[in-house]
Design goal:
By secondary structure, the protein is an alpha/beta fold. The chain contains eleven helices and 15 strands. The strands form four sheets. Strands 5-4-1-13-14-15 form a six-stranded parallel beta sheet, with helices on both faces. It has a five-stranded parallel beta sheet with strand order 7-6-8-9-12, with helices on both faces. Strands 2-3 form a two-stranded antiparallel ribbon.
């Protein structure tokens, strides 16, 4: 598609050609939803590109704001698309929440009310938090919000009461939408927005665009920021996180953000391409 690439020195007469993106970076941080797949439909060429990275020995991790699944569940899903990875190659916003709490809070004996699914529940349980519900949850020490496809008014009410009583409020992310083949669904950010409106408090956000989660991904690979490329489909989370963490970024146009949004927001990724497969193109 014309117009989806920023001008580069290799396109200027008399300048040497620019090598493929693959050759310019030591390690890769790759988003999942909107990059590898849309809900349960793989993005064409994405699985083959990741497998080529593996064959060529380039370090990479998947970095997702999707808190609904555990790393093991993501590994199983990717296996269904023909991509074989290890759980340690999956970095989630649930893990970012857990790591943030480990570094900044003593959660021993503390309670939490969680709006979320398997991934977030498993992570917080592994950190020793006591997860509570019902009347007890209204006096929880923490309210932690992620993507929850069973979210309802009762959960909203409990979260608002707990925060107004002094609970520390965290969110996995504030992505307003979630990309699917049928259009954009409400994301975790839509749920957090309801809790924020009701409680009058804003959350500490552990996932993208917080550079904290990008630093987790870099640590997982033993990579340096200056040698890594972050690939995502959202300007306001993926690209913002990369910019804040000091890594180069690639916006792919298979998910949420498009070229007009780049001009409208002024958020400038290092590169823009049609899809992940362009990583290996000249």
């Amino acid at each position: 598609m014309p117009g989806t690439r920023w001008p580069s020195p290799g396109l200027i007469k008399g300048m040497p050609p620019v090598p493929p993106l693959f050759d310019r970076y030591e390690a890769f941080i790759i988003d999942l939803d909107g990059v590898l797949y849309l809900l349960n439909d793989p993005v064409p060429g994405s699985s083959e590109t990741v497998n080529q990275l593996s064959r060529l020995g380039k370090p990479f991790v998947f970095l997702t704001n999707n808190s609904s699944a555990t790393p093991e569940q993501f590994v199983k899903k990717l296996g269904g698309f023909g991509v074989d990875v290890l759980p340690r190659q999956i970095v989630t916003s649930s893990q970012a929440v857990g790591r943030y709490l480990e570094l900044n809070h003593d959660t021993s004996g503390r309670s939490a009310f969680v709006i979320g699914e398997d991934g977030l529940v498993a992570e917080l349980s592994s950190r020793g938090l006591r997860l509570c519900e019902g009347e007890e949850a209204r006096d929880a020490d923490y309210v932690i919000v992620g993507w929850d496809r069973r979210f309802d008014y009762g959960k909203l009410k409990t979260a608002v009461i707990a925060i107004r009583r002094g609970a520390f409020y965290l969110a996995t992310n504030t992505d307003a939408t979630y990309p699917t083949p049928g259009g954009l669904w409400p994301g975790a950010g839509s749920i957090a927005a309801a809790v924020t409106t009701g409680s009058g408090r804003s959350p500490l956000v552990a996932g993208k665009p917080n550079p904290f989660i990008v630093e987790l991904a870099l640590d997982r690979m033993g990579a340096r920021a200056g040698g890594a490329l972050l690939i995502g489909d959202r300007l306001d989370s993926d690209i913002e996180a990369g910019l804040a963490a000091g890594v180069d970024t690639l916006l792919v146009l298979t998910g949420v953000s498009d070229l007009p949004e780049v001009e409208l927001t002024g958020i400038r990724p290092t590169h823009v391409r049609d899809d992940l497969a362009a990583l290996l193109e000249d």
